[in-house]
């Protein structure tokens, strides 16, 4: 990598790493250390191919997704995150309800399997169409649909408080709208 490419790569890392880290944190179920490892590995791969990459952010995101898929395909047992009991529900008047919902959502996402969490992050956080998610994960569109359906059902069961009070829970409820 020549000096101009190094500067370009450093600028990319400086400007986009925080957004990429947020995606990695969601993919890793809230485990910041695992997310940092995931992002670092993706950036190392990008650095090696930097001069041949046309869209760096798309490339790094694709590497993030594929590495996460590789993690849940491993035969190793998954480490569970121990979480404390959630505090009593705060009132909407004290301004903490949105933050509390984010905490509940993060906790519920952490309890999903890695595959379920990955599909939900790609579909709702990254707002990718089913066909693109299927391509990224190397599966069929039907698998993405069924995994999304089962994941949302489990998410609703784990955290029923994510249902918006102004709208009853229904089939079109997106838990990631919070």
Structure explained in plain terms:
63% of the residues lie in helices and 0% in strands. It has 178 residues and is an all-alpha fold. It is globular and about 55 Å long. The model is unreliable at 167-175 (pLDDT under 50).
Detail the topology: elements first, then pairings:
Layout: H1 3-27, H2 32-48, H3 56-73, H4 97-111, H5 114-125, H6 130-137, H7 141-158
The overall pLDDT average reads 81
The proportion of residues forming helix, as a percent range, comes to: 55-70%
Number of alpha- plus pi-helical segments: 7
How would you sum up the global shape?
A: globular
Structural class: mainly alpha
Radius of gyration: 18 Å
Sheet having the most strands:
none
- Number of DSSP E strands: 0
Element pattern in H and E: HHHHHHH
Intertermini distance: 42 Å
Uncertain residue ranges: 167-175
Oligomer: single chain
Report strand %: under 5%
